[in-house]
Amino acid sequence: MMPGHMTFFDPHQRETVAAAMARIIPTDETPGAAEAGAVDFVDRYLSGIGYIYALPDGSGFESLTGKRADAWMKRVRAAQEKYVAGVADLDTISTSRYETEFVHLTEDQQDDVLREIESGGTGEERQIAYGGPVEPALQKTSAENDLGFFELMVVHTRQGFYSDPIYGGNRDRIGWGVIGFPGPSSLAEVHSGRYSSLEWFADEREHPGAGVGDDR
């Protein structure tokens, strides 16, 4: 975590979440969640409401006030509670099965514990419910309040891996590098129109309205 940024986790919680995220996007022939600093993304997000909406020019974050701030704080507190309880559950299951905390398990043992957390103890895998954003905040889905701890951590791991680095994750643009996307140098470059992702995400690279009204 960069100096001066607020955080939420205590050292053990942070280490546990980082270890779990490292199994969700593991390191193999390409970097994973550990190298991308996905835990930094969620640690800062859970710290309060100071890092919800990045300003378009990349200079910082919007200051939320009034009812909007109250609503976001309620959402963040709900997520905080899920992570605190989730970390405790990971350790409870780990200690019951292997007589040590989650962070001290082998990768295979960690995977077994995560599968149990994912299944809710039923042994059956559950589908993660994804939804469009209520507001265009990068780290929020409309379904977040409905997600359990494991599903929420999966969403945050992916966001911490692929989101713009201004949000705390995707360290050194590692997540973008894995998929071959160089990305903008800053949000300001996007906001000013100097950068476009059209080349990377569109087959038809001419704007649909181009040439409309031409006499040729």
Question: What does the model show?
Answer:
The chain has helices spanning 11-24, 33-36, 38-45, 66-98, 107-119, 149-162, 174-178, 187-191, 198-201. With 216 residues, the protein is an all-alpha fold. It has one domain (11-181). α4 (66-98) crosses α5.
Which terms would index this structure?
216 residues; mainly alpha
The total domain count is 1
Order of helices and strands: HHHHHHHHH
Percent range for β-strand residues: under 5%
Helix content: 40-55%
Average pLDDT confidence is 84
Gross morphology:
globular
Layout: helices, strands, pairs:
Layout: H1 11-24, H2 33-36, H3 38-45, H4 66-98, H5 107-119, H6 149-162, H7 174-178, H8 187-191, H9 198-201
What's the quick description here?
It is built from nine helices and no strands. It has 216 residues and is mainly α.
